[in-house]
Design a protein that fits this description.
2 copies of one chain form a homodimer. By secondary structure, chain A is an alpha/beta fold. The first copy, chain A, is built from 13 helices and 18 strands. The longest helix of chain A is centred in the first third of the chain and has 21 residues.
């Protein structure tokens, strides 16, 4: 090993960790050529050292205690790929305390404990990099932190959960219900055995919290992000979306206006012919709008061992370069030295277009009663579709609204759902036309 | 002015230069907040100091000689926005010789003299940044240089000329001929009064030369890039493309395989429903495929004063940070310390699918004679469309081929064009299905 080589310690030999080992093996030479020195993976810690990962581990010291990595004076840079908020927090803070630059892909940790982690790194004079935490392989955090740093960002939104996008695409293409498509996602490895945090929007909210910090230089915790999942989306909604020229995507949306920020995650109808509307399967994409730059969009694999490993090792290379050139602290982790306090707009105060699907008996006057509940709250209707007639069964009454306030709409829906003609809960999906 | 402020000198107060002045005025405060010090534009040189640019210039020293900027000891960073390869080369080399970090958007200069310029900067120990030279506001060079640096890039292709994409989109949407759409592009400011270098593909070839350097770490000059423009594309071709499910885009394409590189610029039919196919108007997009990362795509405004200024000032911020943290030379301009020699594949040896439109008299046996010329050279036909019949006038015979060699196809076309039935030159457009 040459004097100038940078020695790496990895904690967490799961899917991504194994990808990192493979990438370093296969691309070690070209990486060394670019850097002018080599990266050497010298130590790995994982609680399970028995399972076969199908990657060669010779020459790497293995142990089950993460402290063996963070405490190893022979390790220059630590890679944390454990995930979650429990032990991962200890590992990250442990590495920082030991003065070691750290790479992590842990969005839950950064969304909840970002401030603590970034402050600890700053005080210790070491660096933290986390490109793989949002958008997998896509270097979208770099774009925000350095590529668009001269601009003022007005909005950032995107498809940041590949599991949800895979399921919604399958529903759209096959017309099958959510449950069947979720099962297919699990069978094909696009969804975890327990997919809760993916499908309920939690994972997207974590990523949005990180994007908001980078985009607007403010701190918004996941608990301040209104979050809905995709579990309630039906093939019927996807078919109506198509008729209106839309597709249904789980979007993470944040906007900054007049000093206030809005941040929310929910199924959204967007123009089917837009670039974002064409993002299918497990792919991710983030669109950023800047005052000067206008819209830019970043697209790629949001998950997967090797795509994510590519982002992790790029971060390692950045920190290794900082070590060797003494450039530590060149750019703060969120692109700005101090996050500003910010007021987050209540979701009830948001305004927008909406898709409303009421399930009602096809009785005389039913449309009048439904539209009356909306009109009474100042909500005007853009279009109505009432397809299929039945004297005995409930039929869908579908409408889209002009710009309406969320609060008013939800109040109207409560009245609609209490009507005698209405036989089931009304479906409400936001529409973003400007995407 | 504070001690830590970084002082900028700008050469070239044209469209982008004016955008830089405006951006620095309007975003100066937020930029200073991010950097921890301010950027001060202290000097501007332009040969025309009379024309009104509608931006305030007070407090900035103006002169007509670029040497006043590069030679000013009070200037820390030089911004070159003159364009072209003549005086711009002197300015860039002058700034480097004076030891000043330099930002440029000059793709022609870098494509032709990149090696000279980068070597001079390295020898002088100063830095050069050029994000705005490709893709306008889109931070795609950063993505290649740092975001994807752990990967090995297999291909990079994109729509990198907004003028051509605007014209092709107008032709597609309105069915109008090239000349009318070019005129509209000029009227609306999307094309220069002399649009030659845009529409003939030269500008795209310059940008591809830069992308190739970053993607593959090799040097390919613009003269080695086979380049065709959009002047010969007709509404008829665009309509046939639509029938086959394609759109026509001017693509810059580079691929690396088995140690050889191919690089070419030409109108290309790509799947209309692909993300790249949805890039309309003057927008740009670049798709990069990496061995580990898979496909990633970067989309945004490829031109315009403020979008381009956003990229220029982001570069200034990077160089200013290098100055203040002593991180100069952290990453080489093309991401690798030494470009490798490479063999560029001859365009004649390339293989692919093709669209062929023959203009022929509708005589018995004409289709057999055309397909015979192709079959004799081992080119098999995927589909044939012969629409419209006429006893007196020539009709289009349109076909698409299976994978064929460029050289064989061109030989077949020479034979076809010499047939007595054929009344005009045959149109040939490459098809990229895998986009």
């Amino acid at each position: 090993m040459a004097e100038s080589d940078v020695r790496l310690g990895l904690v967490g030999l799961g899917t991504i960790g194994t990808g990192v080992v493979q990438l370093l093996r296969e691309h070690g030479e070209s990486i060394a050529e670019r850097l002018g020195f080599a990266l050497r993976l010298v130590r790995i810690a994982d609680i399970d050292l028995v399972r076969d990962r199908s990657v060669p581990l010779e020459g790497i010291e293995l142990s089950t205690a993460w402290q063996d990595v963070t405490g190893d004076t022979g390790v220059d840079v630590v890679i944390e790929l454990v995930g979650g908020r429990g032990v991962a927090r200890s590992i990250v803070l442990g590495a920082i305390e030991a003065g070691k630059p750290l790479v992590t892909a842990n969005k839950a940790l950064l969304a909840h404990h970002g401030r603590e982690v970034f402050r600890a790194a700053e005080e210790r004079g070491t660096e933290i990099a986390f490109e793989a935490s949002v958008g997998g392989t896509i270097p979208v955090l770099r774009a925000l932190r350095e590529g668009l740093c001269a601009d003022r960002i007005e909005s950032v939104w995107g498809i940041v959960n590949g599991t949800c996008n895979f399921i919604l695409t399958e529903m759209e293409e096959g017309g099958e219900p959510y449950e069947a498509c979720l099962k297919r996602a699990q069978d094909q490895g696009y969804a975890e055995p327990d997919p809760t945090f993916d499908v309920d929007g939690t994972d997207s909210a974590h990523k949005l919290a990180i994007l908001v910090g980078l985009a607007f230089g403010v701190e918004v915790g996941p608990e301040a992000i209104h979050t809905e999942g995709i579990e309630r989306i039906t093939p019927v909604d996807i078919e109506y979306a198509r008729r209106f020229g839309f597709r249904v995507k789980l979007l993470a949306i944040a906007k900054s206006q007049d000093g206030a920020v809005e941040a929310h995650v929910h199924p959204t109808m967007i123009p089917g012919e837009s670039v974002l509307g064409r993002v299918t399967g497990s792919m991710n994409a983030v669109e950023i709008r800047g005052r000067m730059s206008g819209p830019t969009l970043y697209y790629g694999a949001g998950a997967g061992a090797l795509p994510t490993a590519s982002a992790v090792v790029a971060d390692v290379m950045e920190l290794a370069r900082s070590l060797r050139t003494g450039a530590t602290g060149r750019v703060p982790p969120l692109g700005t030295p101090r996050l500003r306090p910010v007021s987050v707009r209540r979701v009830e105060d948001l305004e927008g277009h909406y898709y409303v699907r009421v399930t009602a008996l096809d009785r005389p006057g039913v449309l009048s009663r439904i539209t009356g509940a909306l009109g009474a709250r100042g909500i005007s209707i853009e279009s109505v579709l009432q397809l299929g007639r039945s004297v005995s069964q409930a039929v869908p009454v579908v409408l889209t609204t002009h710009v309406a306030k969320d609060e008013a709409l939800r109040a109207a829906l409560r009245e609609i759902d209490s009507l005698g003609d209405v036989t089931g809960p009304t479906q409400l999906i936001r529409i973003e036309r400007e995407i």
